[in-house]
Design a protein that fits this description.
By secondary structure, the protein is α/β, with parallel strands linked by helices. It has seven helices and ten strands. Strands 5-9-8-6-10 form a five-stranded mixed barrel, surrounded by four helices. Keywords: Glycosyltransferase, Transferase.
Length: 233
């Protein structure tokens, strides 16, 4: 089966798919962590691979940037390819002063300024949350590896260059840990369609301190979260 956005064959994907935003990060994970990794989809250069990790079949595929993009790919993976677990491995910008560069953030829940959930016609505000099973496994991995880890809410923002440059402080006041752009859509799709999802994020920059990493570091150096995701997949 193929979709408008994925040209993989039936059964090409494992039951667990890691989803970095950057397709080159997906390629990096496949080449450095998976055995016998094979390219299974490349529509619009949104690369997807399947291979073995410690003898278990695992897939990795880029999601692109933003809720609309991950909304498309996660929906198709779950509904057309039978994927049961999607683990986002991405970067985030810290808005909590206790977060440092390279710290791990496990997104227990995701807030948003997107209207993605309007499609469900809910008479209220939907709280998009992760799979507790995946969350607990990831947290235990972090503790066992003695990694700095933070669990809580993130903001899945629709806007990267906000006209109100101080808008993040309002979310900071609500104890939101960090800002990224995908988790809310992923969690909605997973919860609506009977799958499990978790976002494991690495702090790439801090709006509080002004510190930041390079694009190359984000592509190749965030290996702790990659290994956590692979181990719980």
């Amino acid at each position: 089966m193929t979709t408008p956005h994925i040209n993989a064959k039936d059964n090409a994907f494992a039951k667990t798919v890691l989803m970095p935003g950057d397709p080159l990060r997906a390629k990096f994970i496949a080449e450095n962590f998976l055995e016998n990794a094979k390219l299974v989809t490349d529509v619009r250069n949104m690369l997807g691979f399947t291979g073995l990790y410690k003898g278990k079949k695992i897939s990795v595929m880029g999601s692109g940037m933003g809720i609309p993009s991950i909304g498309i790919y996660s929906y198709e993976l779950i509904n057309f390819y039978g994927v049961e677990n999607i683990i986002r491995v991405g970067s985030c910008g810290a808005i909590n002063e206790n977060l440092n560069l390279y710290d791990i953030v496990l997104a227990q829940g995701a807030c948003t300024n997107s209207n993605f959930a309007d499609q469900y016609d809910l008479k209220g505000t939907y709280s998009a949350i992760s799979s507790f099973d995946l969350l607990k496994k990831a947290y235990d991995q972090c503790i066992n590896k003695n990694l700095p880890v933070h669990v809580g809410n993130v903001l899945s923002a629709d806007i990267f260059y906000n006209a109100d440059s101080q808008n993040w402080k309002k979310w900071q006041a609500m104890n939101v840990l960090a800002i990224e752009m995908e988790s809310y859509g992923l969690y909605c799709n997973a919860n609506k369609n009977g799958a499990k999802a978790l976002s494991i994020l690495t702090v790439s920059d801090s709006l509080v301190s002004g510190k930041e990493t390079t694009s190359e570091e984000r592509e190749k150096s965030f290996t702790n979260m990659m290994e956590i995701a692979l181990n719980i997949g």
